[in-house]
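= Protein in question =
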Amino acid sequence: LRGEPPLTRLAYWLSAQECTIDITKARRDLGYEPVTSREDGLEEMRADA
């Protein structure tokens, strides 16, 4: 095998980690709204797979 691996060990490990981030304070204190909704983001991931 030659060249860059399609997926590094770190990328594989990171993709297997579960992470949930609460943006309640950012919404309340800063008026933050995500650019992409969770549903749209998941759909984009499915389309890229």
Summary: The mean pLDDT is 89. Helices lie at 9-15, 24-30, 38-48.
